């Protein structure tokens, strides 16, 4: 009897131990899952970049890189990404300048950091809208690898002077600088000239006082980038940039920029500074007395590029495209068409470029550092789609 009793007690003890271990295992699993869930769902976790999913698992991936102090690329590129994602099915990742000590907050004046550039490793397309960035070598390497692979890109406005390093910089990429005149002769005038076809040169129109109207270049009337665009329908409050003519042999003008005088008064509180799309007077001179409109500057052109030790690639550059320029439908279509062309995709006859959600861009212009400190512009807010 005693033997049977002890066997029974051992079985009960073993069963209780098993149950206890099972309960503890379940509790531990729940605790682990809960903590993981909190980490994922924590609303205080900063959003350092935006991702707009495409249609299907094989959607081509476009990385849009913002980072300029003047033309509100942090507003323009999320809207372009929404259009490319919602209307055309591309997966889009948008990157921003931010102080690494304050992740998730846009600081366009912080020139030494753009988080998430590793996304370029698996990108099919890059849209670049930066100005005078001096990024660390670890970040510049992503641009170098992308360009060496000969992948396509679209450069907007200040992308002609996307990078700039001090003369005494120890960066391995200072030849990307807008003013580079060093030993690497191929890189004279930097990334802008070698890859896009021109660096920062001059303002051809009067900044904030003369606007830009785009007309199709005579030789580009049938170019696919002009699909759905009427000559003269492109307009923006940003002025025409000066370029050195002719552009490099492998560059082809698509849109030429007329310099347009304002019809109304200057208005600092208007995002167009008092200029309007209906303004039609062709300027004769700019504020420096330079004759304009006798020879029209290209404001959009294509180029074949190839950096040393790299493959050939396609680039499209548009010097119109600030956030406020994107209120114009033809400007949006020009940029979307440029993306399709650079990717060697069929350009739609009339691409859907309807604005996605509400879009209320800021006027262009430089801001003091305390502007960004006070604004506390969260990257997550730029990804919202409000009707």
Residue stretches low in confidence (pLDDT < 50, at least 5 long) are: 4-13, 17-41
- Our estimate of the beta-strand percent is 15-25%
Give the N-to-C terminal Cα separation: 81 Å
Question: Which class of one domain in CATH terms?
Answer: Alpha Beta
What is the topology, as strand order, of the major beta sheet?
Answer: 1-3-2-4-5-12-11-10-7-8
Which topology of one domain does CATH recognise?
Answer: Rossmann fold
Helix/strand-derived category reads alpha/beta
Radius of gyration: 26 Å
Helix content: 25-40%
Overall pLDDT: 91
CATH architecture of one domain: 3-Layer(aba) Sandwich
Number of helices: 7
Order of helices and strands: HEEHEEHEHEEEEEEEHHH
Q: Please, what is the oligomeric state?
A: single chain
Number of DSSP strand runs: 12
Based on CA inertia axes, which overall geometry fits? Answer: globular
Short summary:
The chain is 25% helix and 17% strand. The protein is an alpha/beta fold.
